[in-house]
Amino acid sequence: MTFIKSLACAFLMYSRIPMPQVEWKEENRRYSLALFPLIGAIIGAFLVVWTFISSLLDIGKWLYAAVCCLIPIAVTGGIHADGFSDVTDAKSSYASREKKLEIMSDPHVGSFAVIFTVLYFIMQFALFTEIYGVHAAVIPACSFVLSRSLSGFAAVTFKCAKKDGTLQRFVKPAHKRNSITILAFFACSSIDGMFISDPICGLSAVAAALISLICYRISSYKIFGGITGDTEGHFLQICEISQLGASVAAELIALKIQEVI
Fold it and tell me: How many domains does the structure of the chain reveal?
C-alpha cells in the first residue's frame, strides 16, 4: 500500500496523469522518488506508439518531430521545463548565490529563460526529425526513464541547497537505501533497452547521460551550493536532449563510415 500511495504522490506531483488523491504526508512519499522513472516509462511508451503510427500512416518528419516534443510536456505539464527556465534565468543573472536562489523562486519569467527555452525546443525538434522508425525511437524512449533514474539518484544523494522547498518534501521521507536500489533497477533496465536497440547509439546516449550527471553535480554545487527542485528539472531537460543528441550523432557518424567503407 505504501508503494501505491508513493506512486500516486509521484504522479500527482510530476505528471498530469489522473491519479486518486492521497493524503499528503511523509509516509506516503517514502518511495515517490524511487518510482519517478515510471513517468518516464509512460512518456517513452507514448513516443514508441506515436512512432509506430507515424510509420504506418507515413506522417511527415516535421509533424512527427513536433508531436515528439509535445508528448513529454503533455504528460508532465511542463514542470521540468519550468525548472529549466528558472535555472537559466538564475545562471544568466551573474548575481550572488543567495540572489540566484531567490530568482529561481520568482514566478516571473525572464528574457534569458524565454530565449534558451525556445532554442532548446528548436534543437529537440531538429533532433527528432532524424529519428526514423520504431527501432530508432527505442533509445530516446528509454532515455526518459534513465534521466529520471539519475534525477532521483541525485535527489537522494546530492546535497540540497535549501532546507525547505518542494524537493525536500520528497527527499526527507525517502528511504534512501531502498530508493537507490529501485532507481538502479530502472536505470539498468533502460540501459539494457538502449543496448538491445543499438549498442553504439545506446553507449553514446548512456555516456551523455553520465556526463550530464557529473556536470550537474559540479555546476549545482559551485553555483547554488547544492541542488533544488528547479535544478533537478534543469538537469532532466539537459540529460534528455544530451542523450537524444548523442544517439543521433552516433547514428549519423556510423552511416557516414558505412558509406566510406
Answer: 1
pLDDT digits (tens, 9 = 90+) for 210-244: 999 999 999 999 999 999 999 999 999 999 999 99
Supply the range of the domain harboring residue 253.
2-260
pTM of the entire predicted model = 0.94
Q: What is the DSSP string of the chain?
A: -HHHHHHHHHHHHH--S--------GGGGTTTTTTTHHHHHHHHHHHHHHHHHHHHHT--HHHHHHHHHHHHHHHHTTHHHHHHHHHHHHHHHT--HHHHHHHHH-SS--HHHHHHHHHHHHHHHHHHTT--HHHHHHHHHHHHHHHHHHHHHHHHHSPBS-SSSHHHHHHTT--HHHHHHHHHHHHHHHHHHHHHH-HHHHHHHHHHHHHHHHHHHHHHHHHHSSB-HHHHHHHHHHHHHHHHHHHHHHHHHHHHHHHH-
